[in-house]
Amino acid sequence: MTSAPLTAQRDIAMRAPAPLPDPIADIADAMRGWSLEATLPTEKEVAALATIVAPKTPVYLSAVATRDPMAPVDAAVRLAAAGLEPVPHLAVRNFASTALLERFLAGMTEAGVHRVLVIAGDRDRPAGSLRDAMEAIDSGVLQRHGIGEIGIAGYPEGHPGISEQELDRALREKIDIAAEIGLKVNIVTQFCFEADPIIRWIERLRDFGVENPVRIGLAGPTNIATLLRYARRCGVQSSAQGLARQSGLARHLFGMSAPDGLVRAIAEARAARQLGDVALHFFSFGGIAATARWASAVAAGRIIPDAAGGFQVAPP
Predict the structure, then answer these.
(1) Nearest-5° angle of CA 81, CA 87, CA 93?
(2) Largest alpha-carbon pair distance within the chain?
(3) Pairing, β 184-192 against β 256-257
(4) In terms of pLDDT, which residue wins out, 250 or 111?
(5) Given Cys at both, which of 74, 215, 220, 225 links 188, Cβ 3.0 to 4.6 Å?
(6) Rg over CA atoms, the chain
(7) pLDDT value, residue 17
């Protein structure tokens, strides 16, 4: 028989309120495994970056249609030599031949690359015979060069030229084919300005049985004019509304904007809901060092939550 004191203790414990949320702890936890995106960082930028971020921090190297598709190889070598993890974009439409793609992957192998982000690329007309990401994934070329994991693109706010149904179909097809040939798959999203579409999209993925890791793309600290320019270029549908909420439009057009409200909202959702394996991925539109310093401070919990639903980075 249970004694009266033990029963009373159990009743008190059952009535005890749940622990209050700790926004700083939730945000720091959500920042674990964060990654960064840059375009061909210079030797000076890589050296500075290595003094800011933890070793093996993933640095994604974006592909630019107007540049030599082999250009990211040198940047990957620099990042690896500095103790960071280069993760190049493989934009298949940028390659004029499969031989050039093989050279690209061979160079990345020498830099120690074991995962890439496979995308079609921004070209309206392919430079060669490869037209979409699926062709590269299914060709076997990635495994031949030691690639064991791929990222594929996700679109929480949709794509201006592709329907939601087609995006869903392509996502599942890439995941299924990659699984069949032994490639791990993570999903890296476009950069977004609103938390609700991101969270709903991830929950929908999980409802459909897609449990792959997701990296949520966010714009790092930069000025609002730059954000608007990239938002138009990337076709983020709700960019204007999101920017209005993010900045309050109380700042000057060239004032700085940081994704603190988005990070906090995602962290709170991650703590309260079953979002699965989720990490944050920052586009360095305002400069790779500035983005890295901001993200590193947030990951270390050097932040002060504010009443507006965001936070400020505390002085070091």
Answers:
(1) 125
(2) 80
(3) unpaired
(4) 111
(5) 215
(6) 21
(7) 54
pLDDT digits (tens, 9 = 90+) for 43-61: 999 999 999 999 999 999 9
Question: Do 191 and 234 touch, CB atoms closer than 8 A?
Answer: yes
Find, among 267, 270, 263, the residue nearest to 246 by Cα: 263
Can you name the residues that pair with 312 across neighbouring β-strands? 304
Q: Is pTM, for the whole model, over 0.85?
A: yes
- Count the neighbouring beta carbons within 10 Å of the beta carbon of residue 114: 15
Total length of the chain: 316
Contacts of 110 (CB under 8 A, 6+ apart): 77
Domains of the chain: 21-300 (3.20.20.220)
* Residue-wise pLDDT tens digits, 22-51: 999 999 999 999 999 999 999 999 999 999
C-alpha pair distances (Å), 141 with each of 31, 88, 102, 127? 33, 15, 7, 18
Question: Which residues lie closer than 8 Å to 159 by C-beta, 6 or more apart?
Answer: 167, 235
Cβ(59)–Cβ(115) under 8 Å?
no
Distance CA 3, CA 171 (A): 58
